[in-house]
Amino acid sequence: MSSIVIGVIACAVGALFCLRGVIAMRVVIALWGAFLGLSVGGGTIASIMGESVLSSLTGWVVGIAVALTFAVLAYVYYSVAVIIAVGSVGFVLGTAVMTATDITWNWAVITGGVIAGVVLAIIAIVADFPALLLVVITAYGGSAVMTAGIMLITGTLTAEEIVHTSISTDPSDAWWWYALQVALMIVGIVVQSRLVGDERTMRQHWKADA
User: Fold this and answer.
1) Could you give the CA distance from residue 106 to residue 173 in angstroms, rounded to a whole number?
2) Out of 83-97, 108-122, 158-172, which region has the weakest mean confidence (pLDDT)?
């Protein structure tokens, strides 16, 4: 049941991030932060207790507490919003690159993802990327989360596998999941690009949502 719940939440938040990541940047990234916080908090308790993700009251309490913390910080502070949004996508990109190079050690893949996330977040804060670049970043991140959510709902992936198994498993016989993610990403880029329609930077978009 926890896998289905997480999958539904992932699809909803992923869709917002993919289709409205820049347009309603402040609110959407706060919700994105809440989803990440729930995943981090619930996943941490699951790892410590050796249980399924969000299968206990403790897991839900800690997950919700971390989710609220991430959401508030992302809504109030621009730097935190960028770290959560761009850093999380950088982590996904980093782990994808590490996996593509046939590295199968979890610690190495995770370390590569963390480094990529930190570097991309720092560059985003210092350079103040154009909003159109954030369109691509949010479309990619949202499409990845939506795809994972659908996999959770259909039983292709379980919440336990996210925490306890290798994140570098190669689903080479499931190319359609990659095709689905690419299709969702393209839709997100097209939709957001039509709505952005200006040359404002990420910081200007964030302030405009205040």
Assistant:
1) 21
2) 158-172
170 to 17, 28, 161, 194: CA distances (angstroms): 26, 31, 13, 35
